UniProtKB/TrEMBL annotation:
Superkingdom of this protein's organism: Bacteria
InterPro entries: MFS (IPR011701), MFS_dom (IPR020846), MFS_trans_sf (IPR036259)
Organism from which the protein derives: SAR86 cluster bacterium
Domain Major facilitator superfamily (MFS) profile: from-to ranges: 21-432
Name of the protein this chain belongs to: MFS transporter
Length: 439
């Protein structure tokens, strides 16, 4: 008699293998958090060494976002075709090469190109890990596990930023990328030996040897041996990664992507410009990194608390709420402060709510799309949405260069979260309308 591995994993307790897999995805997202922000930690030193203008710096700060967008779409789709594990391995190699090359860049053009390469790996990694954690968690803990994976990002930025601030005190900016390359290399054997291919993915795709692979993984998990896999229906056999644009999913795809695009533009205004803003206020570069660390500490706390609350309350409405609160928090940060402690508190408060919104969006994607398009949907949302992260530092950079003050720029950039919240309100109306139509 056939058994469905997806149901077995959903209904069973979390095994040590699953917990370890989730823990590694948290670490991988932490690595992403540091790799993305490595350019922010290094930016004051780059400005000092190369004497570039704010507008040009904004472009450099955005380059890995361009790579992330391309990587999320292309490699996210690849994760639904060739598997989660192999895609993660490929992304780690791309990130390692990109970080090593960035440490040896000799011009703005070279550094920009190498950051695009790094971004390719980061974008694909985000799509693959989001699908991986959702599929290794059981039904009871899935929402919390995805939230914990998402807060790996600010944790990585916090821990990595603390280390980077110490390294920058006595070294050139290149050491930030060198440190990132070393940590990236350490994750390659961890993924290879400790994360098996997702049984849910193998059940959906049923490639050659799928049953043997699932039973091998289930033996490690302590689950019963399976004699055969469920027979795929004609509809399941016709599944395609393009199904995110099917009539059943297209409205969800568009509205969640719009929400991610707008909110991430607000989110990255804080993450990318904090170090430069702090230095412009007269503080030294190592102190600037410390303020960015506090923004990410706030983000980690906000994301963790969000995950706990999402186990009891509506995920969508919680996400809408933190997005709306993000707006005044960004504006308050834009007031500018003469005391470093006050500035750090404002940055941490902004990070608390903006990152909680990001966590909510990741969880919405992971729980709203079926297995066969989960990585593709994540990749599309992140890929297109990262255009918001790409344009955010550029827009802010040229607004600063034109003479606009921090408060004005902050008010403008905060509007992204406001629009994102309304997009998710519209998503609820579309879902309710669809439910009524089929009732």
């Amino acid at each position: 008699m056939s058994q469905d591995p997806r149901k077995i994993m959903n209904d069973s307790s979390m095994s040590a293998v699953q917990i370890i897999a989730v823990a590694i995805t948290i670490g991988l997202n932490a690595l992403d958090g540091f790799d993305v922000l490595s350019i922010s930690f290094a930016s004051p030193g780059i400005v000092a060494d190369w004497g570039i203008q704010r507008g040009a710096l904004g472009i450099v700060l955005s380059m890995e976002m361009l790579g992330m967008g391309i990587g999320a779409i292309t490699l996210g789709g690849l994760a639904d075709k060739m598997g989660r594990r192999h895609t993660i391995m490929l992304c780690l190699v791309l990130m390692l090469i990109g970080m090593l090359l960035s440490a040896n860049a000799n011009s703005i053009i070279e550094l920009s190109l190498f950051r695009v390469l790094t971004g390719l790996g980061i974008g694909g990694m985000l799509a693959a890990t989001n699908a991986t954690v959702a599929e290794f968690a059981n039904a009871k803990w899935r929402t919390l596990c995805v939230s914990l994976m998402a807060i790996g990002y600010p944790i990585g930025a916090t821990v990595g930023g603390t280390i980077a601030s110490g390294l920058l005190a006595n070294n050139d900016w290149q050491i930030v990328f060198q440190f990132g390359a070393i940590v990236t290399a350490c994750f390659i054997p961890l993924v290879w030996f400790l994360i098996p291919e997702s049984p849910s993915y193998l059940t959906d795709k049923q490639p050659k040897g799928a049953l043997e692979s699932i039973n091998k993984t289930f033996k490690r998990m302590g689950h019963p041996h399976i004699e055969s896999l469920p027979v795929l229906t004609p509809a399941e056999q016709a599944y395609s990664v393009s199904d995110i644009f099917s009539p059943a999913l297209i409205q969800k795809t568009i509205l969640i992507t719009l929400a991610y695009f707008m909110h991430i533009a607000t989110f990255y205004f804080i993450l990318k410009w904090v170090p430069v803003i702090v230095v412009d206020m007269g503080f030294n570069p190592s102190t600037a990194g410390g303020v960015l660390v506090w923004a990410n500490i706030g983000g980690a706390i906000g994301g963790g608390l969000f995950g706990l609350l999402a186990m009891r309350y509506s995920l969508r409405w919680l996400t809408i709420g933190v997005m709306f609160i993000s707006v005044p928090m960004i504006i308050i940060f834009g007031n500018g402060y003469t005391e470093l402690s006050t500035l750090a508190i404002a940055a941490a408060s902004a990070g608390f709510f903006t990152n909680a919104g990001v966590v909510g969006l990741y969880t919405l994607v992971a729980t709203s799309f079926p297995t066969h398009v989960r990585a593709t949907a994540t990749g599309f949302v992140i890929g297109v949405g990262r255009a918001g992260a790409f344009v955010s530092p550029i827009i802010a950079g040229y607004m600063f260069q034109s003479g606009l003050g921090l408060q004005t720029v902050a008010i403008f950039m905060a509007c992204g979260s406001l629009i994102a919240g309304f997009a998710l309100i519209m998503l609820g109306r579309k879902l309710n309308a669809a439910s009524s139509a089929t009732a």
